[in-house]
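Contributing new complexes? Match this layout with iron/sulfur cluster.
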Amino acid sequence: MLVQQSSQLKEEIMRLKKEKDVVILAHNYQIPDVQDVADFTGDSLGLSRQAATVPQKTILFCGVNFMAETAAIISPEKKVLIPDLEAGCSLSDSITLDELKNWKMQHPEAIAVGYVNTTAEIKSELDYCCTSSNAVNVVNTIPKDKEILFLPDMFLGSYVAKMTGRKNIHIWAGECHVHAGITPEDVIKKLDSMNDTELVIHPECGCTTPFMYDVADGSYDEKKVSILSTEGMLKHVSKSKSKNFVVATETGILYKMRKDNPDKTFVAASEKAECQYMKMITLEKVYDALINEKHIVTVPKEIADKARLAINRMLAIS
Ligand code: SF4
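Output block (do not edit by hand):
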């Protein structure tokens, strides 16, 4: 899109959202133009919290479907819109309702803990929901003698098992194709090409497992390593004294990192780590959603009521 066209569209979106009393929430992986028109940017947990507290009656959610569903569940009195209904998620698709019900039947005493990256139907079968920011803390609140079913991300699950030291945690073998595609080789190549560099990794990444031991030691090859959620990464890189960072997550996060820290250098661990679902949301679709009040996201009441219990437990734990 031409720069002039894009800035006109942004102005029109800013005007419309005020006129229609709409709040725009955008995930950290959204394209820069969409992040620019948002009232709040953040990760799943941060945006869920915003959805629960914003005064506006309409939320325009720039992210993927499960996020907009979560907002609709938390705020049933509000209208939740998503600019493109096709914005899905390979991770949330990695477990079906029947698969979860069967798994629970095999472990009838277990507590089901599910990542927020799941459909509303799956959430309605969970005891606890969690995000990458609070997964470790959520699991730590569950009595040590209770078996846990953790789903659907296997890398986050292994990270949680390692950090909590629990042996009685069963992990679903799901993954996000974007994060799973970031390999240890990608990371090491980037780290070796730069001096005085810190590494920040999202726990969904395929490179998480081998680096967990370096995290326990505090460094890899004398470089500092941290495993963090996207919000955790944003806070960490701003506070850190380091000037250079290799960032292992979806590349959309780099926009905010660079904007907030113009004196620092941020390099993607893998330039291929782009989520095509997140990138489906464009300025044109945001404009269209505002003008035509679409697409309305609804969750059947009986599913929403059950799912809300698990989500509220997630929101209560930082
Ligand atoms: S980056 Fe992965 S987990 Fe996030 S929305 Fe895309 S497919 Fe889903």
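Reviewers usually confirm one structural detail per submission. For this one: The chain has a mean pLDDT of 94.
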